[in-house]
Amino acid sequence: RYLRNYIRNLFAGAWEPQDLSPLPIHVPQATQEEVQRCAELLSRARKPLVLLGSQAMLPPTTPAQLCSALESLGIPCYLGGASRGLLPPESPILLRQNRRDALRDADLVLLAGAVCDFRLSYGRLFNRGAAIVAVNRDREQLLKNSDVFWKPRLAVQGDVASFVVRLAQSLSGFSCPREWGEQLREAERRREKEIRDKATVPAPPHLNPLDLLLCLDQLLPQNCILVADGGDFVATAAYILRPRQPLAWLDPGPFGTLGVGGGFALGAKLCRPDAEVWVLYGDGSLGYSLMEFDTFVRHKTPVIALVGNDACWSQIAREQVALLGSNVACGLAYLGNGTFGTSWHLLAPGLGTHVVWELWGG
Predict the structure, then answer these.
(1) What is the pLDDT at residue 339?
(2) Residues with Cβ within 8 Å of residue 92, at least 6 apart in sequence
(3) Domain extent for 280
(4) Residue 138 belongs to a domain
(5) In 3-state terms, what secondary structure has residue 16?
(6) Which of 122, 153, 185 is the last residue of a domain?
(7) Whole-number mean pLDDT of the chain?
(8) Alpha helices in 220-329 (DSSP H)
């Protein structure tokens, strides 16, 4: 009787007709006064900079419209999170290196969906005299850590992409100072050369991960989707690999929730079956979704995985060794010869997949 009562209460009304129409979506929008105020600040800036976050990719504004608006403004721009790939790799306003130095020099920073958290050192990276304009749909994210190390000159609670489009329309005659753009591009070229030089350094008996990732970047097709699931290896890939198109980079996000690789790759391949989906794994994060390769086989969703195998939770170990003098259990298993990490590739045939390369990172 107890169970019958429980089940009756649990499913009471389950078969009654319900309204299943979508709930209305409210997208906050900036006021015209806020757009105009930002335009005024921008028109006086000599060294403006845009930091774009994942939120900028939300509808109703399309990636193509947002890309066009950014190129119309002509302001040097860093892309983060899901916004990677919004600008084509050859875009003259796209920057990927030296963000810390650029922020210290900039006299105006537009946080377009970018959040002032640990990724921006909670605001300590900004030039103290810079005007900070923050735009975000969520008020808590908009003002995160403000009045500690930073304070926005203008804080706009509204849709990011539509704000940028309206800003570009209000500044149709605006031209970003050429000297500023050249300064940043020259620094970008120097840093890219440093990376290429480091990629030539042998790392026997291992592979140089910089060289490996630079080679991969040359091979990736236009229709590729990159799924990042790792720490140190993915952090390196983030400043080397170039997503070829908008919404073609998926990563664990600011909380670093390792284990998303298998699910993200499956979803990406099902949504875009013609895309070439690559999963970039660290050897630590691989353990969280390794069995999804069985899922890929059963559902006929082929993906390619590249594992940076250095037998260590390296991103954590880097800080812990410096702070504590020990890697504090960050080391993973080596083979008997003490040279190579766990032989993950041996699991592939058992899951119905194939090994093309057997690579070990240094």
Answers:
(1) 59
(2) 181, 185
(3) 200-351
(4) yes
(5) coil
(6) 185
(7) 92
(8) 232-238, 261-271, 286-289, 292-298, 314-324
